[in-house]
Amino acid sequence: MGALTKVLSVTLKELRELARRPLLILTMILGPLAIMVAFGIGSDATFPPPRVIIVVPPGQEQPRLLRDYEREFQQSLAIADYTTDLEHARTELRRNRVDAVLILPPAPFETVASGEQAEIEVLYNEIDPARRWLIPDFVRSMASDINREIFLQGAREQQGALDDSARELDLALQVLDRATSAAERGDREEARRLLAQTGATLDRLDEGLALLGAQAEVVRAPVERAQRRLDRAGERLARAEDVLATPDPRPPSEQLGLAQTKQDLERLQEALRRFSDVPPEVAISPLGVKPQYTGRLRPDLITFFAPVMLALLVQHTAVSLGALSLVRERLTNTFEMYTIAPISAMQLLLGKYLAYVFFSLVIAAAMLGVLLAGIGVPVFGDAWRVALVLALLALTSVGLGFALSLLAGSEQQAVQFAMLSLLAIVYFSGIALPLDALRLPALLFSYALPATYGGNLLQDVMLRGLPGNSLFLLILATLAAGLFGLCLALLRWRMRAA
Amino acid sequence: MDGDVTAEMEGQEAGERTERPGAPPPDGSDHALAIDARGLSKSFDAHVVLRDLDLRVRAGEIFGLIGPSGSGKSTAIHLMCGHLRPTGGEVKVLGESPTAFSARTRRRIGYMPQGFILYPDLTVKQNVGAAAGLYELPEWRNRGRIRAVLDLVELWDARGQAARSLSGGMRRRLALAAAIVHDPDLLFADEPTANLDPILRSKLWNHFREMSAAGKTLLVTTQYIDEVESCDRVGLTYDGKMIAEGRPEELRRDAFGGDVVEVDLERPSQQDIDTVRQLPWVRSVSTAMMDGDKREKEPHVSLRVVVEDARQAIPQLLDAIEASGAEVRSVGQFRPTFDEVFVRLIERQGARRPPLAALRAHGEPGPEDT
């Protein structure tokens, strides 16, 4: 009973002290919250297109590349100016008036036609590491759009050519039928003439396909297959003509193998039709992507980060208050009163833990209320699970605050520790960068922060409706217990006679 | 002349603490020791703050540790409270070593530290409630006790005021209330009257005397010499050492080698003075107000005569002077101030004379003690 009285007296004293400093508490909580909400509202997490100057080749005020693909240029870049003066463009870049200079090739279409790649040169001098990679990416994206458009046009033209080839093949089959009939009638001369005509048609088809294959990489493989079939058919026709030149008692169809040739050509015709029936968009991009969002909620930036912010603020509040609480008493003579009074380090620590965990949970509940009612953040999972995560987070954070407080040499140092812990959360708990973007040492540090577990668990429970990673809960509980033990040892050390 | 002598004789008792009911006898033989320190020393690295302190405080007495700032008073209290571990010697407080106090003993001790230590954001009543809670007296069940102690220190009317808004005097009284809310048997009060005005100092000492009258033991440190007279016994510390200890009047006698009788003579000759000096029970004679100019304008001399017992010596001294033919204007026991007493005691230890500011008779603020 006496022990409980002492613990509760310390708790009551701490809560009263907190209640009598409302301004400090408000600043501590509302400050970071307001900054984060302002950041969330003010940012859409996208980067604007880079501002560029396009340097066009001398004498080409409106080159064909720009004329034909103006939409693609406008979509990907913020074009500040067009110029033929490269030095002027470089100066503008150096003065940071633009993000990049694009130098168009003098004759891109002719270069491609000659079998070489035409290149757009990109000059940039961005010093921001986060944006530096964006500039070439924006230009690559634009070039990719233009390439796709070029492919699309080419595919349409090639499909037209394939249609012509299919018609030629139709004609060849008809002539072949007539040649077969003539052979069966015994009219060898007529059959030879018609076979020669078929062969000539097939030769024209072969040449057309060869041209098509040479022009378009995308159809090269099927065209080569078609050419092989044509070659086989041509060889058979040549053999048939030779046979017809020699008297033979067998039926002409068996001697000539024309049925087999016809079958080959029909397969070829089927293949050509199949290919020409494919829409050009599919032909140039055979594998598409069809993303489907299956989550219960498609959170915006604020909603996504709301649970992490909640974890951050609970940790920050608990660490700051804990850090200030003990250091102030340690550095004033209040600690002397504890060392002479019949209160043990365990009772003192329990009393303080009770007060600060309770207070942190009140703050957490208030902030959760703001997130749910004010911002509309949902809780899809179990509400008790949210409470459990917040309780463990508060317990661990208060322990961290007390530990810092017992290690700090002055109140200013305790404040510095608390601010450092806030910075650590911002950079390492998954707010600034996703955790999987961190290297191992940084990742280990991340997982030493209670807010990392708290944020992850709260996102799982609130936004995904999952129970949360049980291992994380266990680690958080272990951290809380470990920190309590550490604080107890430090407090006993601080309370011992010097 | 008899009238003057009588008046001076009465005056000598006026400033001294009168015996209280329950106050310990001078030898204290039948009282248990509340504090028993033997050879107590404390150093911080090479810096010796306290050396070989021998101190016995009997239960029920007010013991005053007096000395200039930095003389080791607060260190002694910290050692007795268990805040510090001695580097030499040992100390028992209520029969236990302070670094290993049992919870039972802790409940019997009150501690009023030098600085204001309570919680500035809490109200007066909440502060005392918080202190009571540490001694297993839940605030919610001891409202009467809290009120009584706040009444005692005259802070009940300020109970709703935040501690940070209190004046220096009120803070000291609040600290006292927090230190005694659990009715301790032994109170350590480290410079309780520092920076207080004389009226508040007087009030605090009244509280201490009331506690002492109720059988409580108090160990009080102070820089104010005039507070010595409120103590049953006094220890004088200087440069980390206890250089004198005893009842206030004993210290006076100790400093001057006996009682001092002041005799005012009308135009004495050197022979008259020598006559006094040669009396067998006279230990020493000094003259006062003897500079040349004064002698001409006020042709009389004050002799300070040190004797074993002033009450017995005064009639014999009068007879001897009258027999020599000198004229006595007045005679009486001279009570040197404790400033003079302490300066003498310190000088007798071979220490250099302490600066006047180091020992203070009045309430000017001074630097914090170590």
Properties at a glance:
heterodimer, A: 498 residues, mainly alpha, four-stranded mixed sheet, B: 370 residues, alpha/beta, six-stranded mixed sheet, four-stranded antiparallel sheet, disordered C terminus
Detailed description of the structure:
The complex is a heterodimer of chains A (498) and B (370). Chain A is mostly helical and 498 residues long. In chain A, helix 9 runs antiparallel to helix 10. Chain B is built from twelve helices and 13 strands. In chain B, the strands form three sheets. Chain B has a six-stranded mixed β-sheet, sandwiched between helices. Chain B has a four-stranded antiparallel β-sheet with strand order 11-12-10-13. Chains A and B meet through helix 1 and helix 15 of A and helix 3 and helix 4 of B.
* Percentage beta strand of chain B: 25-35%
Q: Which stretches of chain A of 5+ consecutive residues score pLDDT under 50?
A: none
Number of strands of chain A: 4
Strand order of the largest sheet of chain A: 2-1-3-4
Give a quick account of the main beta sheet of chain B: strands, pairing sense, barrel closure: 6 strands, mixed
The helix-and-strand class of chain B reads alpha/beta
Strand order of the largest sheet of chain B: 5-6-7-3-8-9
Range of helix content of chain A: over 70%
Shape of chain A: elongated
Count the beta strands of chain B. Answer: 13
Give the termini distance of chain A in whole angstroms: 31 Å
